[in-house]
Amino acid sequence: SIGDYFKAEAIPFAWEFLTSPEWIGFDKDKLYISVYTDDEEAYRIWTEVCHVDPSHILKTDDNFWEIGEGPGGPDSEIFYDRGEKYGCGKPGCTVGCDCDRYMEVWNNVFSQFDNDGNGNYTELKQKNIDTGMGLERLACVVQGVGSLFDVDTVRNITNKVSEIAGKHYGDSEKTDISLRVVTDHIRSTVMMICDGVIPSNEGRGYVLRRLLRRAARHGKLLGIDRPFLSEVATTVINESGGAYPELIEKQKYIHKVIENEEASFNKTIDSGLNILHERIAAANSKELPAADAFQLYDTYGFPIDLTLEILEEQGMTTNREEFDRLMNEQRERAREDRKKMGDLGWQSEDLGLDKSIKTRFDGYETLGEAAKVLAIVNEGEPSGAAAKGEKITVVLDHTPFYAEMGGQIGDHGILEGKNGVVTVSDVQKTKDGKYMHIGVVTEGEISVEDEVQAKVDAEYRQSICRAHTSTHLLQKALRKVLGDHVEQAGSYTANDHIRFDFTHFAALTPEELAQVEALVNEDILAGYPVITEEMGIDEAKKKGAMALFGEKYGAVVRVVQAGDSVELCGGTHLD
Questions:
Q1: pLDDT tens-digit map of 185-224
Q2: Residue of 239, 270, 241, 236 whose CA lies nearest to 255
Q3: Who's near 10: CB < 8 A, 6+ residues apart?
Q4: Which of 21, 333, 341, 427 is the residue whose CA sits 20 to 30 A from 461?
Q5: Nearest CA to 548 among 500, 479, 488?
């Protein structure tokens, strides 16, 4: 209930839920309440409506929830007295003590005020209530166990790990840590994979990869010398499948992802661990040289976080700042190598043109039009003209030539002026929107300010269009055959072939390849119209358009539909 009486709704509901025999059925004498000192309304409801003994209510200035500027307000917590065996034994131990005796099981936050960031509060026009219990904490209390790892559904997972390892939970602290790590990480892993996350080296995929690898390593610490995580995942699915039926639906897929990642990591960890232990033994101090840690990462693919964890267990460290410096040097070398392999000098030249000047692209509508030469680059330098035989780059005011973007190669064609012809073999686009037509003067000469006929090689463009439209059909087919987790991770669309990178946990089998090929060919033979439209990003999402993860899109996007393939795309396509 929203409004002036929202406390009168929320507080009795929480109390009824916890104390009613039909629900949790807690003994009222074991429940304690904390309220904000000045919140007389909440105190009145606890005592007069819920009939809580005032001796079980603690007023405190700590019961005010806020995070600086923005909404906040008083809150009221409910604690359960778990008994003396969980307490610290100190006189006066009560709610708020750091020991485990009084466990918070519910909290009601009353968002009543808006903080301007300077400690000034005004009443919110729309008050609200954030109320809820800690499900796992509640399970600990109801089952009378010491921690989440002792709750039945979680303990069953630990028992499975114990069975595989031949170790018993509670025998030693060192063993217990590894058992808890595997238990916790495999639960998270199963849920993440079910939600569509797959192991990778960035973002949420990297979090998943670290969880899986850390679990695998702690399995080795337990003496497990074979892949085992998929086996434990079965227990997770059995325990949680009732509440999350999608786990059962995706069980085969979850197992496959875990098996592939664990097998991959085992290859890395076995060689890496041997080398790391050799370097640790050879170290003359408590610090492993950062160069050794970096070589393990750079040459052998051994994760730095794993190196740090193992060093900590050995009472050692490494210089993380020096490691990061070596990493940055490596990145810089990689950048320089990429530049040497194809960086074009004109990308950093101003060409004597105003930064605001952009080339207008007309290539969706036409393959030939009149244009004006704005600049010429000859031997890496701006030039007023170029003669036959010279390799040059030409900037036009507008163009029908598609520049290499989104994995699609640039167009071929000619620029034909009254005094000469340039044969174009590539087109690139600068960051500030200028199209660079790269080619050779094959007849006469060409000059800045010349009017030219820009003509795209129609046959070459059509070949690229066929390839690009096929790429969209390919992605759709891959998702049908392998699953909706498949996402584009890069591509190269040329006139005579395509390369399509995508997220999947294993190489395709010959049968899967045959299925994908058959689906694409069926779509081609169906002769679907290819419909290209511009629309708002929200409308495109409603239409089901696929976007590249991490790609930035404007308010208006270009949507390409071929059959049931719908994607956001700026490339050229068939009709």
A1: 999 999 999 888 888 777 788 889 889 988 998 998 898 9
A2: 236
A3: 1, 108, 110, 129, 131
A4: 341
A5: 488
